[in-house]
Amino acid sequence: MKDHAAESDAVRRFRERLGLPGLVDVHTHFMPERVLRKVWEYFDSLGPLTGGLEWPITYREAEDERAAILRGFGVRAFTSMLYPHKPGMARWLNGWAADFAHRTPDCLHTATLFPEPGVEAYVREAVEAGARLFKSHVQVGAYDPADELLRPAWGLLAEAGIPVVIHCGSGPAPGKHTGPGPVARVLAEHPRLRLIVAHMGMPEYEEFLDLAERYGEVRLDTTMAFTDFTEALMPLPRRALPRLAALGDRVLLGSDFPNIPYPYVHQLDALERLGLGEEWLRAVCHDNGAKLFGL
Known about the structure:
By secondary structure, the protein is an alpha/beta fold. The chain contains 13 helices and 9 strands. The chain has helices at residues 5-18, 33-44, 63-72, 90-103, 119-128, 138-141, 151-160, 180-189, 205-214, 228-231, 241-246, 264-272, 278-292, and strands at 23-24, 75-79, 107-108, 110-112, 133-137, 164-167, 195-197, 219-221, 251-252. The strands form 2 sheets. The protein has a 6-stranded parallel sheet. Strands 1-2-3 form a 3-stranded parallel sheet. Strand 2 (75-79), helix 4 and strand 3 form a beta-alpha-beta unit. It is globular. The two termini are 30 Å apart.
């Protein structure tokens, strides 16, 4: 295991400046090891969904070491974002995630879904088993979130008030069903659905800000947004900053740990240099997540 003491100190200083008891990160990846290795191989091979970008994985440690790194950073709650790319995977992944949450109390029990026969049944099973949030990956899954098969599942999750982190923006590479249009159709039918738009919806930042302003339960996570890596390719228009500031109670810290091409602390530094103030930073990095998940 690499020594992350210096970075842990830098994160601690960030937390202490803001008076935070810890961080709540709604977008971290834990999944079965063989699945995670395939994800890393995909990044290493510059697969098309990476936009062909060089993407060195910063934290390739074993599962228990990765969890220990997050704890060393003061992350008091994190997630096990996982997602199927074909039918027949989601129920199995949900079983693994339930076991991981059972043996990892600081991980918010995460589940996933896919448009397939039986999706409502296994989503209900996951909810009854204690799932705290779901992950939907429109880009990797290559499905329309407004698919008829998903309608009952969205309705169930809206009724239960369980958030869904959804990768629906067209970055780093567009998919057949990415962009704000399909998600807008879902929200028109399920306006109380607690969608958390991953990566701030990059690069369609302003269109997803529109949806958050229109629907009071829509939130955005900061995953990879505002970092040097992303700003060089898909910068947030500076004119959007006042809107981002006004939505400060519905923006949540996300990192994409461990699958990031820079140190974890850089995401925090990138948020701070937006210049939106300490109150906004405290809400984003801890308070909003703590409130949403009743921590």
